[in-house]
Design a protein that fits this description.
By secondary structure, this protein is mostly helical. The chain has a domain of 111 residues. Helices cover 83% and strands 0% of the residues. Helix 3 packs antiparallel against helix 4 and helix 3 runs parallel beside helix 5.
Length: 179
């Protein structure tokens, strides 16, 4: 073990003495070589920095679009709730019996439950789209930074009209507001 250590120390001493000799005889050449290597390394960072900054811009756009969609959904929800409350008060004022008022109240509760489920579904859909967009940006950025080509899996086929409920934003809201 000691002989291996001495051998390693001697090899390192020889290596360092050779380096010191080179520095004494040609310091300008060593500095020039080091500067060239450093410049190459700095230049090689240009593409990764651009890829990261471009990804940051895309992520910002995704988050702004998501926030906009959520704010618009919230405005629709509040507007619909206010319209429904006003319509409910008008109906209550025109109702002549407690039994009719109770039936109307049951219909309102059912419609409210359906509206809440629909609103939650729309919010989940907004987040699902944002998540997919973020995943796409992350995958593309990783591909650029790692030097690997982006995973080229075939896109999943979208379901046709069958089995998929159509999303109706305005018409359903308009019907509820007038009901």
């Amino acid at each position: 073990m000691i002989s291996k250590t001495r051998k390693f120390v001697n090899e390192q001493r020889q290596f360092l003495s050779e380096r010191a000799r080179k520095l004494r005889t040609a310091p300008a050449e060593v500095a020039r070589t080091a500067a060239i290597k450093s410049a190459k390394r700095i230049k090689s960072l240009k593409d990764p920095v651009r890829a990261l900054s471009h990804s940051g811009v895309r992520l910002t756009a995704i988050s702004q679009g998501t926030a906009q969609s959520l704010i618009e959904l919230q405005a629709e929800i509040v507007t619909s709730a206010l319209s429904n409350a006003a319509a409910q008060l008008e109906r209550a004022a025109q109702t002549e019996s407690a039994m009719a008022l109770a039936r109307d109240q049951a219909d309102v509760l059912r419609a409210t439950r359906e509206r809440i489920v629909e609103d939650l579904s729309q919010a989940v859909a907004i987040f699902k789209v944002a998540g997919g967009d973020i995943r796409k940006v992350a995958t593309q950025t990783y591909g650029k930074l790692s030097g690997r080509a982006e995973d080229k899996r075939p896109a999943a086929k979208k379901a046709g009209r069958k089995g998929k409920r159509a999303v109706r934003k305005t018409p359903a809201r308009a019907r509820r507001a007038t009901a």
